[in-house]
Amino acid sequence: MFKTLPTLSNLPDVRNQIVVVRAALNVPIKDGNVTNKFRIMRALPTINFLRQAGARVVVLGHVGREKSDTFAPVYEVLRHHLPVSFVPHTIGEEVEAAKAVLKSGEVLLLENVRQDDRETENDLSYAEALATGAVAFVNDAFADSHRSHASLAALATLLPTFFGRNFMHEYEELSKARTPVHPSLFILGGAKFDTKMPLVDLFVEHYDNIFIGGALANDVFKARGYNVGQSLVSDVDLSAWPLLHDERLLIPVDVEVEGPAGRRTCSPKEVCDDEKIFDAGSATIALLAPFVDKAATILWNGPLGNFEVGFGQQTADLAKLIAQAKGYAIVGGGDTIAAIESLGCQESFGFMSTAGGAMLTYLELGTLPAIDAADHG
């Protein structure tokens, strides 16, 4: 059973008061334009609830990986949905001046918090500056809450903290995934097996079958003695892993490889020294089909292939397969969501999470650093 968190329904009267919202606005931006608005749209219900409650809403978030990355393109999207202004700073005189003229029901978007190094250091003085003038903090950024950063964790220790609509939707749906209805199937793709191994070890006790795909499968191939050629592998040795030959563990039965001789599909046992595995093959989707068809619960995080270099076919085919299934499907991870949205079949999924890493952390631990920080605030 998941922990009861303070929500928007517990919020006191905030009319004409400043409420700070931490939203999950880390959206893809190309040539100065937002290319996927999924997370922005998920942030609107909480912001609008606070507007209707008469609050003066100050929105924080981060975007991109570089300190120079800006929220200007995010503002261009938001201004079509909200009475919002934008200040290209997170703290300081210009920010305080903008707060001072903010009216009830209006929104102020501040700049990418990661432009300040103190954000990732979880610096209390930075959080205090972000909290200036506010009466409450609303965390609506489930996707970022696995990080102990100033706008998530430190801020929660300074102000009465509540959790927004998007956060609670994620929290409740992913709590269901921790106790699935059977028969159940967990599909895990992507890379970095060392960080995901504890979740696999835990969920093999909760799920009837676990399919390991993406670069994670390369680690299993290697541990089983297959040649993985030039393929991406983790710095982990699975040769003594108790689940290595467990019948509940499913792995690709064919792979797409590329090498000097070009691209081909072969058995995982037939990869050559100079080849690199980039995706599963069509026979793997056929293998998964009966498991997907009979599952009452399907949990999926991470693609089956290397999306960044164009290997997305099997991920798309798996998305189509799950969209047609009768079971309740919970999916997360940026590339996974992108594949589903590109097919236009998102309405066929029970729940699509905005989270990637936070989803996996919560599934494993049942909590997140930002939740724990609010508990001890």
Summarize the structure.
The chain is an alpha/beta fold and 377 residues long. The chain folds into two domains: 8-167, Phosphoglycerate kinase, N-terminal domain (Rossmann fold, 3-Layer(aba) Sandwich), CATH 3.40.50; 179-364, 3-Layer(aba) Sandwich (Rossmann fold). The chain has 13 helices and 17 strands.
Order of helices and strands: EEEHEHEHEHEHEHEHEHEEEEHEHEHEHH
**Could you name the CATH class of the largest domain?**
Alpha Beta
**In CATH terms, what is the architecture of the largest domain?**
3-Layer(aba) Sandwich
- Extract low-pLDDT stretches: none
In DSSP terms (H or I, runs of 4 or more residues), the helix count works out at 13
Write down the overall mean pLDDT. 95
> From the alpha-carbon coordinates, what is the Rg to the nearest angstrom?
22 Å
- The general outline is elongated
Key structural traits:
single chain, 377 residues, alpha/beta, Rossmann fold, 2 domains, six-stranded parallel sheet, 17 strands, 18% strand, elongated
List the helices and strands and how they pair.
Blueprint: E1 18-22, E2 29-30, E3 33-34, H1 38-52, E4 56-60, H2 72-78, E5 84-87, H3 93-100, E6 107-110, H4 124-130, E7 134-139, H5 150-154, E8 161-163, H6 165-178, E9 184-188, H7 193-203, E10 209-212, H8 216-223, E11 249-250, E12 255-259, E13 262-266, E14 276-280, H9 282-294, E15 297-301, H10 313-323, E16 328-332, H11 334-343, E17 351-352, H12 357-365, H13 369-375
Parallel strand pairs: 1-4, 1-7, 4-6, 5-6, 7-8, 9-10, 9-15, 10-11, 15-16, 16-17
Antiparallel strand pairs: 2-3, 12-13, 12-14
Helix pairs in contact: 6-12, 7-12, 9-10, 10-11
